[in-house]
């Protein structure tokens, strides 16, 4: 990143996923997700912040009791809890994660994520 404030490469919104440097205001993105119809009417809201070959980063906001239905990915994933707490169910196990906690699952591991209270997390898929 540039040391120069206001550099256009730094100020572009995260939706410009093909640029080499992406800067995201996580707090603003969380607020926008919580204000979205998806958050108010569905089990969760999400926004892809980064998508590069072999790597994706998704911001997810979950209302209390909201969940992502059981699924799996072909790549390894990580969870970084930004706010409050979530529960991850996988392989007949449950893992509770609070703010600041980090966890990883191997590729092809079926899992479900539930917000224990209004929560937010970063999900990273892939990487090498």
Cα-atom radius of gyration: 15 Å
Q: Briefly, what CATH class?
A: Mainly Beta
Give the fraction of residues assigned to helices: 10-25%
Name the CATH superfamily assignment.
Jelly Rolls
Q: Provide the domain count.
A: 1
Main sheet, how many strands, which sense, barrel?
5 strands, antiparallel
Number of helices: 3
In which order are the strands of the major sheet placed? 1-2-9-4-7
Q: How many β-strand stretches?
A: 9
Shape designation: globular
One letter per element, helices H and strands E, the order comes to HHHEEEEEEEEE
Average pLDDT across residues?
Answer: 86
Describe this protein's structure:
The strands form two sheets. Strands 1-2-9-4-7 form a five-stranded antiparallel β-sheet, covered by helices on one side. The chain has a four-stranded antiparallel β-sheet with strand order 3-8-5-6, with no helix packed on it. It is mostly beta strands and 128 residues long. A hairpin with a 2-residue loop joins strand 5 (85-90) and strand 6. It has one domain: Sandwich (Jelly Rolls), CATH 2.60.120. The protein contains three helices and nine strands; from the N terminus they run H-H-H-E-E-E-E-E-E-E-E-E. The radius of gyration is 15 Å and the shape is globular.
Describe the protein's topology.
Layout (H helix, E strand, L loop, with lengths): L7 H4 L14 H10 L1 H5 L3 E8 L2 E8 L4 E5 L5 E7 L1 E6 L2 E6 L3 E4 L5 E5 L3 E8 L2
